[in-house]
Every structure is written in structure tokens, then in C-alpha cells.
Design brief:
Strand order of the largest sheet: 3-2-1-4-5
Radius of gyration: 20 Å
Number of helices: 12
Structural class: alpha/beta
CATH topology of the largest domain: Nucleotidyltransferase, domain 5
Number of strands: 10
CATH class of the largest domain: Alpha Beta
Order of helices and strands: EEEHHEHEHEEEHHHHHEHHEH
Largest sheet: 5 strands, mixed
CATH architecture of the largest domain: 2-Layer Sandwich
Strand content: 15-25%
């Protein structure tokens, strides 16, 4: 029986899926971070581990196609990284070509049956991309939290901390200070200076926004506006849009605000609930 594989390899985890020719899932596997930009050549081992788990009980020689979506696909330009992935495929026993594409491509495929359109991702970071098949045609933002990623979890958290240090008595500030273990504004400044994972504050912002806190709601509204502005940089107003990333897949106020704006435009919208399966769908199309 011929099968295909799909992998979604991100900065937190790598997830793999095996499907048959009809699209039925035959196996799944997971492993550690597979982002080669952050992890270098060792990221290939995490991707390989996820694939081995997904292929348990199946003959790797029956794999006829596959697609791997990775955060940081540009790292494949490094010969050491490319060699590490090629060696991993051989060690698993794969005999077919396994294209490695950006995770925006597989996220888009996970959101619907469109072959061309846009994907808007907001998780730890934020990026929008125009996708055509296996190719990313145009990209907006994705610049990292110091320079961009506007509307991302990192952005939400950072805005909350900035608000908290200026209005230390507000409900939002109290929640942020408790998260940081800060008793005074100076403590919060010191905590921020250690460059903590600001994205961990984002759930607090979303919870307070849902509870009606005006400061948190204002940050969420601005996040949605910035995400839509990033999407508009693609200059493809009639394209279907797939929403991806934790803030836009889960039932967050950010997702609801973005959906409201897209629905008002009459935009066709999908949600990337399973990028690994999206990668497998691309493999089936190939």
C-alpha cells in the first residue's frame, strides 16, 4: 500500500502524519522542536523522530511522496542543515524526494482546498504570506518581536507590560505584575530587562479582554488591526485567507476580532487546525 507523509516542524514541536491515497490517517508521531533556524542541524533529528513514530508498523519504502513544513525554511540554505535532513531521510529508509517548504505553505493547505491564497499566522510571532502551490509568493512581517511580529503573542504580552508599568494600579497591571512577581513598577522594569518570554503574558490579556477589561480589550483590538494591516501588505484583497497559529486557531478574542473584519469584507476564511495533515494533503496533490 502506497502512503504519503506530512510534517509540521515548528519551534516548539514537530508533528508528523501518514495517510493513504484516500487521505485516511494511518499514523501520527510527535517529537521536539524542528525549527532549523533555531536548532541548526539537530532539528533534523527531531523531524526524523516524529516521522519514525508516525511510520511505526509501516514499511518506509511504501512512502511515495512527502512534504515537510518548517519554521525557518531558509536555514536549508546552510549545507550542514540540508545534509542533516538528507541523511535523516536515508536513515529512516525513505526512497522518495521530500520537499521542505515554509510552514506558511503547509498551514495554508491545512485550511482548505484552495491552491492559491493567503495565510495569516499569529502565534508567538506573526506573519502573512501569499501562497501558490508549494511556493510562497510574497511575505509580510515575520520580522521577529524586536522589529515586527505585530499582533502576535509576543506583541500582545509586550504591550501589556508597557501598559502595566505606566498604570500600575489598573486590573491589567496587577495581573501582569503578579505574573512577573513584581511588587513595584521598578521591579517590573527590571523583569522586562531580562527579556523574558513576553508571549506568556498573552493569555492574561485574552482572558481579561473576554472578561470585559477595557485596557486588555484595547490591546486585542489593536492586535487585530495590525494583523489585518499585515495581511493587506500582500496586496491580494480577493484571495481566500487561512488563519493559523495559536491566537487565530483557538477561540481567542484576537481570532474573533480578525474574523469580524474579514467577514465584513466578504473574504472566504479557513482555519489551519492540523498543518501536518495539510503537508500530507500537499504530498497527495504531488
Amino acid at each position: 500500500m502506497a502512503v504519503v507523509v506530512g510534517v509540521d516542524a515548528g519551534g516548539t514541536a514537530s508533528k508528523a502524519v501518514v495517510v493513504d491515497g484516500s487521505g485516511t490517517v494511518l499514523g501520527r508521531g510527535a517529537a521536539g522542536p524542528g525549527n532549523p533556524s533555531a536548532g541548526g542541524p539537530p532539528a533534523a533529528r527531531a523531524v526524523g523522530s516524529a516521522l519514525r513514530s508516525a511510520l511505526a508498523g509501516l514499511d518506509p519504502a511504501t512512502v511515495t511522496a512527502g512534504v515537510v513544513g518548517v519554521a525557518g525554511a531558509s536555514a536549508l540554505a546552510d549545507p550542514a542543515v540540508a545534509a542533516a535532513f538528507a541523511e535523516e531521510w536515508v536513515s529512516i529508509g525513505l526512497r522518495c524526494e521530500i520537499p521542505i517548504v515554509g510552514d506558511a505553505v503547509t498551514a495554508f493547505a491545512a485550511g482548505g482546498d484552495w491552491s492559491t491564497g493567503a495565510v495569516l499566522i499569529s502565534g508567538t510571532g506573526a506573519v502573512a504570506a501569499l501562497v501558490d502551490g508549494l511556493c510562497t509568493v510574497r511575505v509580510a512581517d515575520g520580522l521577529g518581536w524586536l522589529l515586527g511580529d505585530e499582533g502576535s503573542g509576543m506583541w500582545l504580552g509586550l504591550q501589556a507590560v508597557r501598559h502595566a508599568v505606566r498604570t500600575f494600579s489598573s486590573p491589567l497591571a496587577r495581573e501582569v505584575a503578579a505574573h512577573a512577581g513584581a511588587a513595584t513598577p521598578d521591579d517590573l522594569v527590571h523583569w522586562a530587562g531580562t527579556l523574558p518570554p513576553f508571549g506568556a503574558v498573552a493569555p492574561l490579556v485574552c482572558e481579561l479582554a473576554d472578561a470585559g477589561d477595557p485596557d486588555a480589550a484595547s490591546i486585542v483590538t489593536e492586535a487585530a488591526a495590525r494583523l489585518i494591516a499585515t495581511l493587506d501588505e500582500l496586496e491580494s484583497p480577493h484571495a481566500p485567507v487561512v488563519l493559523a497559529g495559536g491566537l487565530l486557531v483557538a477561540g481567542t478574542p484576537v481570532r474573533r476580532a480578525v474574523l469580524t473584519r474579514l467577514t465584513a469584507r466578504g473574504t472566504a476564511v479557513g482555519t489551519a487546525t492540523d498543518p501536518a495533515l495539510g503537508a500530507a494533503r500537499l504530498a497527495l496533490r504531488r
